[in-house]
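User: Let's play a game. I give you a shape written as tokens, and you guess the letters that built it. Ready? Here's round one.
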């Protein structure tokens, strides 16, 4: 597997189907490498971005029924 993905390859790696979603991630700070007319996204950058945006979601507490 290559270290640098095209946008299409990055979307596949991320499991997203919309360019809007990828552009949203870029606006949130996912770095893009621009060399000439080529835009690439590093696999390492994607992994670090996703790790830094990972949160733990706790299930809602159940309300006790005091009957």
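Assistant: Ready! My guess for every position:
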């Amino acid at each position: 597997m290559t270290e640098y993905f095209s946008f299409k390859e990055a979307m596949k790696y991320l499991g997203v189907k919309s360019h809007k979603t990828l552009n949203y991630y870029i606006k949130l700070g996912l770095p893009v490498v621009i060399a000439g007319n080529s835009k690439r996204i590093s696999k390492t950058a994607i992994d670090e971005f996703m790790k830094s945006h990972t949160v733990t979601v706790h299930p809602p507490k159940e309300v006790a029924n005091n009957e």
